[in-house]
């Protein structure tokens, strides 16, 4: 398992995933960003093949962390778009 930062482009993230081959990649959450931007990032990295998240700050420092957890569940496990998951 390797914890990785988002490399600032979806193409670069896809390259990292491909280069990692069978190694499990986990996204490092980085700095806290707004809800929609965070969920859109999660959606893109999951689509690229990242298999896990290490994003505590981006969950627990929210005004309503349980709402964010619910939205993450919808993005990661139900493949809902970030905008739908956040509003759902």
TrEMBL record:
It holds the Pfam family DeoC. GO terms for molecular function: lyase activity. Gene3D superfamilies: Aldolase class I (3.20.20.70). This is Fructose-bisphosphate aldolase. It comes from Haloarcula pellucida. The lineage of its organism: Archaea, Methanobacteriati, Methanobacteriota, Stenosarchaea group, Halobacteria.
């Amino acid at each position: 398992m390797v914890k990785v930062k988002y490399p600032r482009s979806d193409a670069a993230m896809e390259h990292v995933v491909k280069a990692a081959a069978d190694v499990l990649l986990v996204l490092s959450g980085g700095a806290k960003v707004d809800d929609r931007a965070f969920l859109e990032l999660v959606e893109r990295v999951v689509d690229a093949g990242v298999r896990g998240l290490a994003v505590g700050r981006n969950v627990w420092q929210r005004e309503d962390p349980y709402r964010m957890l619910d939205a993450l569940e919808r993005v990661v496990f139900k493949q809902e778009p970030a905008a739908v998951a956040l509003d759902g």
